[in-house]
Write a structure and sequence with these properties.
9 helices; globular
Length: 267
């Protein structure tokens, strides 16, 4: 495939979907890293996926409201369960998150066991279908993004443990259906990891830059070489993550003042 074969009419909606996911996941990812619950996104995304699979197994329309309600309900139940376990057993919360992820994964596999298209459904859940995102999905995601960001930046100090988990579940439920589990995890954790050593004022803009460049370059490369988009974006974002903060620090560092020789001095 030549560079002229890249269809930006397809890539632009996919890029917008990625940017909408990043808008909420970058600040939430920083909080996840701070709390030490790195794998919560995998668990919640997998639980939301089980809701989607269960609704599909019951014959509901894939993009219908019933599927969205099932996915959100499952994710909220998972979030409430994790809220309780963090309060009850905070010292083993990360382990419990891992157990919940495995249980949700196995439940999804069992639900797909009798489905002739089960392998395709599982692939869509993990890698997503970002290239085929619809205008309706983008509009819905944009509205949800505004809501999540308004609640996060407006009420963050008053959300508490339960509020954080519920807001997180809301954001992840929508994003996993757009970009898949792998990109949800990458969008949350990779930028947050890359900027953790920067000064606070730089962390958020640099993390957004890492995510945006990852989606832009990853989508372009996947189209150029006809490769799975989700997997390429994950690898590209992970590859550029260590470099962007270095460039940002070099760019933000003020140049040392020029010194002029003392004309009145006699050597």
């Amino acid at each position: 495939m030549t560079s002229t074969a890249i269809d930006w009419h397809i890539l632009l909606p996919a890029l917008l979907a990625g940017l909408l996911v990043l808008a909420t996941h970058v600040p939430l990812g920083a909080q996840v890293l701070q709390r030490g619950i790195v794998f919560i996104d995998l668990a919640i995304a997998q639980i939301a996926g089980v809701g989607v699979i269960a609704a599909d197994a019951m014959g509901f329309e894939p993009q219908g409201w019933a599927v969205q309600v099932a996915a959100l309900s499952a994710a909220l139940l998972g979030a409430l369960a994790l809220t309780w376990t963090e309060r009850r057993w905070p010292d083993i919360q990360e382990a419990l998150i891992g157990v919940l992820f495995v249980l949700a994964s196995c439940a999804g596999l069992l639900l797909l066991a009798g489905n002739p298209h089960g392998g395709e459904h599982l692939k869509d859940l993990l890698v997503g279908q970002i290239l085929w995102v619809s205008t309706q999905q983008l509009i819905g995601m944009a509205a949800l993004t505004v809501l999540v960001l308004a609640l996060w930046f407006g009420l963050r100090e008053r959300l508490g443990r339960a509020g954080f988990y519920l807001l997180f579940a809301l954001a992840v439920t929508a994003s996993v259906q757009l970009v898949g589990v792998y990109l949800v995890f990458t969008s949350l954790i990779v930028p947050a990891l890359a900027v953790r050593s920067l000064r606070p004022a730089l962390r958020l803009p640099v993390a957004y830059a890492i995510g945006a460049l990852g989606y832009l370059l990853g989508l372009a490369l996947s189209a150029r070489f006809d490769l799975p988009s989700g997997a390429v974006v994950v690898l590209v974002m992970a590859g550029i993550a260590p470099m962007v903060p270095w460039v940002a620090v070099r760019w933000a560092k003020p140049s040392p003042p020029e010194t002029t020789p003392d004309k009145g001095r006699m050597d």
